[in-house]
Amino acid sequence: MGGDFADTSSRASSDDDDPEAALNLGDDDNNNVAPLLRLRRLPPAGSSGHDAGPSALPGEGAVISVYVTMHRVRRLVMTAIDDTYTLDELRAPQMDHQVVRPLVDRLYNPRDPAVVYCLVANRVQFLRPRSRESVQQGINESRAILCELLATRVLRRFHEDHPGHSGLLLLANILVSGFDPCDTAPEIVRARRPQWAVQDRGGHERKLTALELAIISESKMLIKSPACQVVVDAVYKGVVVYTPLSFVDFLPDHYTHHPVSLYEPRHAPILNHHRLIVPQLRNAIGLLHFAILLGLYMLTVAHYGLGGDMAGLRVYESIFNVFAAGWVLEQFADIVEHGWEVHAQNLWSFLDVTFVVIYASYGLVRIVELLFMDDAYYALPVLCTAAPVLLTRIAFTLMPNNIVFIALHAMMRDFTRLTFIAIWCFAGFVMGLLFLARTSGEDSLNAGVTWATITKWLLWIWFGLDGTGIERAADFHLLMGPMLIITFAFLGNTLFLTILVAILTNTFSKIIANEAAEVQFRRAVLTFQGVKSDAIFSYPPPFNMAALLVLLPLKFVVSPLAFHQINVAAIRTINAPILLLIGLWERRKVWARRSRSSLFNPWRYFPSLSPHADIQAVFSSEPPPDVIDVLEKMDALHDVVPADRAFIMQSPKDLRDPTSAVRRRRNSNSSSVRRFDA
User: Fold this and answer.
1) CB neighbours (10 Å) of residue 44?
2) What is the pLDDT of residues 472-505, one digit of tens each?
3) Domain for residue 609, yes or no?
4) Quick check: keyword Transmembrane helix in the entry (predicted)?
5) At what angle do helices 515-530 and 403-439 cross, to 10 degrees?
6) H helices of 514-651, where?
7) What is the Cα gyration radius of the chain?
8) Tally of domains within the chain
9) pTM recorded for the entire structure
10) Are residues 226 and 86 in the same domain?
11) Are residues 415 and 491 in the same domain?
């Protein structure tokens, strides 16, 4: 695998040692204050030994519950922001020193990984449009920006204070571990939750991750931060593994729940079916499945175009239909996995939906042909219209990080929305001209003009292809006919096209101006969607349909353990060649990396042969104290650093121990934080 693999000793807490185990500090019968003071003790994975900070309650390792933290963040942010601000204004030195940094110091707690989740959850709430708060919408957007900025700063603190593999494990728990927003909430709050049927997941129901909320709220500043990208890259390559959380599974198998951990291929089984949900491997397998679908489609359409060979056409068409049905089932399960709001962020989601619509239309027509017509092929021409969609989808899949495709995805949403508005508005012109033709039009016009003919004339005017509609305008009505058609020509060719070009240009310029963030955001979406919870994704098409028809009824007959064993055995049997190749490849990558680092690195044994050895020797160790004293006399840092930032580094000791400056930085704003006391 690309990237380093750590030993499984750096593993998160298991199911027996639940990090969310609650310690009730009061009587729950009152359902008032006691549940809000319930604390949970978190595992010390990646703890750096720093003080808990101003947000920690008394008691080592004690942090406030998720429910209380969410409301605490909301109160602090609403107190700090009571006017509209942009991101640049919030990043200004004065706002950063008086508002942002004090809030970060107050909220940051090395032992509380739920702070980032609570900040992003508040951003989602502030961005939610509410008609009764339309006057406050601008202020709420500023508060949402502040929440994202605070989440980015807090996540950076975690990244700086927890280096190494333990720090990667902690960051992964912050971003991809599930949190319950109603953790220790009062009973009146729990009663308001939607009471839909939730699949049993062993205590992990109704949980969401910070990364999912960041994708939903389009927190691109948070996702593009180095700390978040480290986790996204590790999850994408399979270095960080976990059991994802989803809303509904087609084929649920939740007998075991694997916490967030670091993967070691040498200690894993050779046929490890969990590697099928690694995003990097899953994207490669998905591309293979789509290539098979495209090949079967080409064979079917090509035999239809040749004609005559009806037997061969039926064979290829049957194979294509079976495989395409399994592929459509996988796409539908992908939408249900995390919801349409997350799935729509995928670059090629609109292409997949378009193909599903075309395939469904083809299927309906084909069923009618088989039931009521003999040897008729009216459905295959419908299937031929899917060729532009499938070929375009290949380009999107091969180049998911191309900024042109990213911009095209965003512009397609604006184009589709504006096109529907135009069709809805311009339908009135068709109805008006049709009514004119029926009431006051000439007899020759009434004999041959229908709504389809009028629509065709207006489309030709819109695209500038033909002027028949303008020539026949007086036949509708001597005055009203030309007035309606000329008005349509002005609105369609001038106003609508100008607005369309302006909107698409604005969207494209925004994406190009923030190219790096857009690419990293799409990579995060691709990574998050690649980790699947539903067992149906472990079966390639068309075996997923067979698994759904056979294993799903079996789940209600056998015990959960027996179903899990049967499911794992079936997955390993069907995917045995792929799993064997993955296992051997990962082990070879680890051996090759260690061989290069230990045996085939000549600079390790002959460092003097390196052309940059002198430069490396200068910076290989800190300067001695006498040199630091000379440097301090030459350049006093309090003269270089502004007064409001002098506390960052004030003495030569900070050169030898940078963490002392970081600790002073966190404690220096205690006076400025008082205005945010709850």
Assistant:
1) 15
2) 778 777 788 888 888 888 888 788 888 888 999 9
3) no
4) yes
5) 90
6) 515-530, 543-555, 560-574, 576-598, 602-605, 613-618, 625-634, 637-640
7) 31
8) 4
9) 0.73
10) yes
11) yes
